[in-house]
Amino acid sequence: MRAARSAAVRRGALGLVVVTAAALVVWVPAGTAAVAPGDTALVTRSTEATLPNSEAVETAISGDGRHVVFSSRGSYTDLDNDFSVNVFARDLTTGVTTQVSVAYSEGEAVSPNGDSAQPAISADGRYVAFVTTSTDITGDDYPADVVVADRDGDGNGTLDDSLLEFHRISDSDIYEGSPRTPRISADGGRVLWTDESIGDSGRRWVVRYRDLDSGAPTSPIRTVGADPDPDDLRFVVGAYDGALSADGTHVAMTVDFVEYTEPGLRGRPLLRLAGQSAPAPDFTAIVLVRLAVGDESDEVSRVDFDEDGAFLGTSREVGVRFPALSGDGSVVAFEAQAYDTNSDGAWFPLADQPNVYVHLRGEERSSIASRNNAGEPRNGARPALSADGRYLAFVTDSLDMHDGVDWGPYSSSCLHETDSVAAVPPPDAERDLRTYCQVVVRDLILDEARETAGADRLPGVLASPGLDPFCSENVPDGETCAGNRSSGLSPSQWILDFGDGEGVPSLSADGGRVAFDSFSEDLTADDPAPEAREWDGFVRTFLPTLVADPVDFGDTEVGSTRDRTATLRVVGAGPLTIASITVDGVDFAPGADTCVGVRLHREDSCLAGVRFSPTAAGGRSGVLVVRLADGREFAVDLRGSGSDVPVVPDGPEFAATPNPVDFGARLLLSTDPTATVTVTNTGGSPMTFPAPPTAAGDFSVRSTDCAVLAPGASCGVVVQFRPTRPGARTGVLVIASDAPGAPHLVALRGSGSQPVIVVNPGVSRPGRVISVSGTGFPANAAVTVGYQESIETATAQSSNEGAFRVSLLLFPKAAIGTRTVTATVAGVAPEFIQPGRLLVVYPSMSPPEFLTRG
Known about the structure:
With about 850 residues, this protein is mostly beta strands. About 0% of the residues lie in helices and about 40% in strands. Strands 1, 2, 34, 36, 38 and 40 form a six-stranded mixed beta sheet that branches. Strands 19-17-18-20-21 form a five-stranded antiparallel beta sheet, with no helix packed on it.
């Protein structure tokens, strides 16, 4: 029940400026800053925005950032749930909340007969995995099962939950286990969970996965290698805390190992720990597995490295747990802290002072990410990663971890109860000064860049800021207090006896939104019942902004054109994508840019060109309008003046022709002919070029003779276009100089040919020879041709015009049916080649509309 909150803490389980096009990096000192701009929304509410009389926890967000799921005993829809626990989904765009854990009676949704919790959601919100004890959902009478709800069960492309389709995943009748903590891939096709396995030597935890459309549950821990050396092996006695990469290819988990020689453990899966000398008899490790494809074997490796390259888990006195993965499994985050035993021999955290580590796959070291604003390691727990691996969220109860102002210090928090280890002196007294738990987000790419440059890290980003201004006696102007109670680690074990089910932070794929549970009562201004707040789910949306100086063209002769460049700088945390750039104002026009379609981040910059061509004398003003993908707009002031008399600036003045440069259509991978951009100094003093010009993508600078230009002199920049994919290609030539408006932008454009395969005849019998021809391929390139379900290939050399023809044999035992004929050529991705079609028919007949030859 919701109740008036007591004051007690509830127990629960400026910076880098990058001008991207010109590769200019400017470092300024890090310092205390206001909380990064953003918006916080209470999301565990009904469609009518009311709050049921119950807590809500385990809030998780979809990869696209549009949907959240959560668990609660409340009724958020018309169904009467009789205080059972259920899973709900909310569309943050439409504001509609629906119940996902439902049963059906005579085609109508009804409240199920058991509890459901621990939801996970696919990237587009269509699939929701959860654990349930409801027999009328699973159709069996086992204690618990993992199920996946397809929220588009009627197949109409709309997540209206009008008819949910459920897939039972865990097969508890086979394993007699207790499944928990499911994870789901971005496309919803693969589900991972932790389960119990009951065998001759008792119960043990295992991690299993299953594909939605086929297959039986599988364990990603298998025997590795042949003729194992006992000195290099340990038995797996438990695997849990499973994490699944968004692409479904990698699994990370916590694994408990014991000595190989223990007789009672023979027959269990083994894991080869190559290169590790025999550690203590028992230890815990974070294991990363690349799941096998086809007949391959799983690739298994340990990733729980310390910063010095040694493994953290060398004995049970160091516990490593709760791994998180980026979308492709290339980044792993995990938690590590000191452990001890109590009088019963059970292991427990020694002082609740965990570190959050980040590991890059393939490296033999990790780095501590949970550091305070002075760079010192501090408490961090339950990490989460964005799919792109750039953003890390975690829970902390340490002081000075972010860009807000803390409450406290206190002696207890959601990570630490004073009486739980009262007799144990803390390993680090500074880390025992605690505050309310908060959710902090770090930009790992920015952190690494600043470290490489020898600059201090920026403060962490507070994702759970509050509205209460009284966290400190002297809150500086412009500063924001953290939430007035704990956030990020909700005590959800009360929902079901599934264990390890606390609600922890989750990030959208791009890191722009973070979902978390909170006990705070001051996170939003539109909270309908802050005085009765217990645990609820919230989403923080980061809203970075753009800033730019006004662009002043000065006096410009009527009938001439002058170019200038606006530098757009990102302020605030989170990703930002520019959708379009337009210009409002007479005689102003947009030029080339390095901004549109590019995802920018904190302290990044991009360049937007503007052109002023006055048609009459007198002052002009305009606005450069920058529209973001999220609908927001930013404006940059433009001003200039037309002059009836020639204007020769005292300083250097840049002019370039042609602008834009149009390379026209050409074959893929071709590099000639090149184009030359002529740069002229139309000013009154010499113009210098401090760095070589640059171009990116399919465009590059082949040569330049621009160094110092006297007034009236010209130089050339030779640009090359090498299309790597079909269709229109665009780019920007960036030229740095000491003239006003630098760096200068020249638009580049061209198009690449579309490779096409033609099969003749399109219908043939096995044992015949067909002709395969192609057009639009790279010139003078080796082309390999084959067809689906055959090892037969043929190789041809394309002509100067990108055409080829080759004969291909259909094997006498070729299968009957439609086949896809494909071609490969080095340097061109297969998806950019339009395949041909071949119908293989029985030898005794042919369709009447077709003619077969051979």
